[in-house]
Specification:
The chain is mainly alpha-helical and 303 residues long. It has helices at residues 2-21, 39-49, 51-55, 103-112, 127-130, 135-145, 170-177, 191-201, 207-210, 245-249, 252-261, 274-281, 286-298; strands at 77-80, 83-86, 159-160, 228-229, 236-237. It has a 3-stranded antiparallel beta sheet, with no helix packed on it.
């Protein structure tokens, strides 16, 4: 009998420890800065992050274009080896979108990967990159999203197999892999590189596609931006370190021009999933495009 009681107590202790380890960590209201939200600045963050590329509702099964890119009803399906993730509605609709979210709710989703009801988000939502963003930028982004049209209709649930369907387990994943520090060290005295690093590693979340992942879907920081299998399962996303074919041959000016125009120095045109990314980059300031290009030329070259 004593052995049985000891076993039960051991199981209970393990359960309590597992619950504590996987518990979400969030910011409190006191953790927010005194900042007047600026929707215009938030629009630039929206473009840098390419939010519409995933969250704009597909039109007739195709990527949204023009004004439809601001209808953020979600619904895009992201296939992976773990199952299918469905992009949510982030329009300001009060019931189906995020219209009832407070600024704190939005900050905790973006920077901590936690929903307003205290559930972990899967890292298919790239909060692992957004966690490097400044609080002020996140607050501005929320202000801009609040100006967009309301879109009705909720998204379907994710279709994931075991054990990925156990959302609470993401808490353990975060303890192992959720690192909010910048990946690449840059010269603190170079504002251009600092800005480029912020845009690429933070709101731009370029590493989410251009960096390979391990079996647990965590980014391999040792091969940062060195190319990876396409998330859509068709081909590869290219190496964009200085060892990559294009970055090695192009100047900072060439890369910045590619972001602006969609044309390479050889007058080839952007294609594939990069089309949507380039369209967003074209709307950034020339200084920001140059900063991103300078950062890509400065990161460690990985063959």
């Amino acid at each position: 009998m004593r052995g049985l009681v000891a076993a039960i107590m051991a199981v209970m202790l393990v359960a309590v420890l597992a619950y504590a380890i996987t518990a979400p960590s969030v910011l409190s209201e006191g953790g927010l800065p005194t900042h007047e939200a600026d929707a215009t600045a938030g629009q630039q963050i929206f473009r840098a992050g390419g939010c519409a590329s995933c969250h704009a509702s597909p039109v007739d099964g195709k990527r949204a274009r023009g004004a439809d890119k601001l209808l953020l009803g979600g619904g895009m399906e992201l296939a992976s080896g773990k199952g299918t993730f469905v992009v949510p509605n982030i329009s300001p609709h009060l019931e189906d979108g995020i219209g009832r979210w407070s600024t704190l709710d939005f900050v905790n989703a973006m920077l901590r990967g936690v929903s307003p009801d205290g559930r972990h988000y899967y890292p298919s939502f790239p909060y692992t990159s957004y966690a490097r963003m400044r609080l002020e930028d996140v607050i501005d982004l929320k202000a801009y999203l609040d100006t967009l049209p309301e879109v009705s209709g909720g998204s379907a649930a994710h279709d994931l197999g075991f054990p990925w369907s156990l959302r609470r387990g993401i808490g353990a994943w975060k303890r192992l892999y959720f690192d909010t520090g910048f990946v690449v060290a840059t010269a603190a005295t170079d504002p251009l590189l600092e800005r480029g690093r912020y845009l690429v590693e933070g709101p731009g979340h370029c590493g989410e596609c251009h960096t390979p992942r391990n079996w647990f879907a965590a980014l391999d920081a040792g091969r940062w931006l060195a190319g990876a299998p396409s998330p859509a399962g068709d081909g590869r996303v290219p190496n964009i370190t200085p060892a990559g074919k294009n970055v090695s041959a192009w100047s900072i000016e060439d890369i910045a021009y590619y972001f602006e125009s969609g044309f390479t120095p050889d007058f080839d045109a952007v294609g594939g999933s990069m089309v949507a990314v380039q369209e967003n980059l074209a709307q950034l300031t020339a200084d920001d495009r140059e900063a991103i290009a300078a950062y890509l030329k400065a990161v460690p070259a990985i063959e």
